[in-house]
Amino acid sequence: MKKxxxxxxxxxxxxxxAQFRGSLGLELGKPMIxxxxxxxxxxxxxxxxxxxxxxxTATLGYIYVTNDMDDVSTSIIPIMAGxxxxxxxxxxxxxxxxxxxxxxxxxxxxxLSLSTSNFAxxxxxxYMINSNIDIGLSYTYTLGxxxxxxxxxxxxxxAYWF
Length: 162
What we know:
The protein is mainly beta. The protein has one domain (2-161): Beta Barrel (Porin), CATH 2.40.160.20. It contains one helix and eight strands, in the order αββββββββ.
């Protein structure tokens, strides 16, 4: 939580720059893992504009994932960097987004807690309703230690840019 607050402070401070902007968003997702349900969470993102229709991005989030098992808690923490391309401009319209990074999957059961962090990549797109409101849809895949350990999830993000 302290890291998220620090990241938000950095985004707010850098937003004074015309080329940098930050956002806060709500996340809704469905991991492609049989034992879990939907995920809901928050995220902070920043974007450094390379031009009117291209930007470099960084995202940090926390997603709590529901499940049917008693006394089991599952969460995903994505730390991603990416490239965003806007069809018109970063003020409105459709965009595409590619990301690479690290995702931590944490599963807790009672006092036992296991977590693993692995390389992840994602593709998505979205629509900037105006210069502040963004709705995005993405698919992210996290690699595992071997081929059978990886997992993907579909995510929806609604964000406010400042």
